[in-house]
Design a protein that fits this description.
With 376 residues, this protein is an alpha+beta fold. Helix content is 49%, strand content 18%.
């Protein structure tokens, strides 16, 4: 009987194709929008994408989002260093500056400042130049995707950075932040020269513990200082993502798009599948007249729906995967992510979709009278 169900399904190629495309469209929209949404959330974590050496990030207790912080003083840095179990603690600056270009344009840049001695927070990948060159006065290293907007500067060229002379000493690869501004690296001292002086300058204090087992104890010790708060990398990332979801409309907008894709897929698939079953009622009546039970007929319809759903799901996921790979190869401003968890959720949504599309059709199949086969 299952072979007959498959032959009935593939017998009408037009309706079969429309059914597959309906499921594929819903799957593509769910996965594509979900991949962009996840990419946005990860991008919002800013420096957390690039800095992996420390075990803890120390910030002001009121911090909600990694790109919005209250600067810390050198005194707090020394207090953090005094906590038992701390191997090292270094200052990190995440600041902003304006680059003036020769053609009169200007660009806002995100500049990361790291300690001159340890270079903690260095770019994850150097593609030109040497990291040691950053120790020179006024030296900066530019993230490669920022080069086009900076006029394709070369190593040795100078830039006007907040009315200060900056020398390009190399290029690197790194993940940008939520704002997608240009990204530069410099030493802590050079950043203080480029950006307006303040009484407090440290954006975050990054901490390495003496052992992995010491991390919880060190975190508690830092929190007990009272005027700072320590986070693991995952905790800080989740705090940032929670802020994005709660304080911006990104989650609602992407959620609406995903739900609309699901609804369109359900309605289109239900309409076409219902028409497909209706036009094959005579065949179902023949099978019923031959003694096929309602349970067997139900299995036949569900098998047809499952075949269409899985093929449509594969086509939709394939399209979403091509989109994700294309955005990464093109170094797009938006990095889409397609983890297996998203695929599992979209598969569950597809199964619900074909189940709903089968409900109305099953009612017609189960109620069809065997005598229909003898009617004109």
């Amino acid at each position: 009987m299952l072979a007959i169900a498959v032959k009935m399904l593939f017998g009408d190629r037009t309706k079969y194709t429309i059914l597959v495309l309906g499921i594929a469209f819903a799957t593509l929209l769910i996965n594509q929008q979900g991949a962009i949404f996840l990419g946005l959330l990860v991008r919002a974590t800013g420096p957390l994408q690039n800095v992996h050496q420390p075990d803890l990030w120390v910030a002001d207790p009121g911090v909600r989002f990694i790109a919005e912080y209250r600067p810390l003083s050198d005194q707090k840095l020394n207090r953090v260093r005094s906590v038992p179990g701390v191997s090292w603690a270094e200052p990190l600056i995440n600041n902003w500056a304006v680059v003036e270009l020769p053609d009169g344009r200007f660009e806002k840049v995100n500049i990361i400042g790291m300690p001159r001695t340890s270079m903690v927070g260095r770019p994850p990948e150097i593609i030109a130049g040497r990291i040691d060159d950053l120790r020179a006065p006024g030296a900066v290293m530019i993230e490669e995707s920022s080069l086009e907007r900076l006029g394709h500067v070369k190593i040795g060229d100078t830039l006007r950075l907040n009315d200060h002379r900056a020398v390009v000493v190399g290029f690197c690869k790194a993940k940008k932040g939520f704002e997608s501004n240009l990204l530069m690296y410099a030493t802590y001292d050079n950043v203080l020269e480029f950006t307006p002086a303040q009484r407090r300058n440290i954006s975050y204090i990054v901490v390495k513990c003496q052992s992995a087992e010491d991390i919880p104890a060190v975190q508690r010790g830092i929190n007990e200082l009272g005027d700072v708060r320590a986070f693991t990398r995952d905790q800080f990332a989740l705090r940032t993502i929670d802020f994005i979801l709660r304080e911006t409309g990104i989650g609602v907008n992407f959620g609406i798009t995903i739900v609309l894709g699901f609804i369109v897929g359900v309605l289109l698939s239900a309409a076409v599948f219902y028409q497909f079953v209706t036009e094959n009622l005579r065949q179902f009546a023949v099978l019923k007249a031959l003694g096929l039970t309602g349970r067997r007929l139900t299995v036949m319809v569900l098998v047809q729906a499952l075949i269409v759903g899985l093929i449509g799901f594969g086509v939709g996921v394939g399209g979403a995967s091509v989109f994700t790979i294309a955005t990464r190869k093109a170094s797009a401003e938006l990095d889409a992510m397609l983890p297996w968890q998203l695929l599992a959720v979209s598969l569950a949504a597809m199964l619900v979709c074909i189940l709903l599309a089968s409900v109305l059709s099953l009612r017609r199949v189960l109620r069809v009278p065997p005598g229909l086969v003898f009617s004109g």
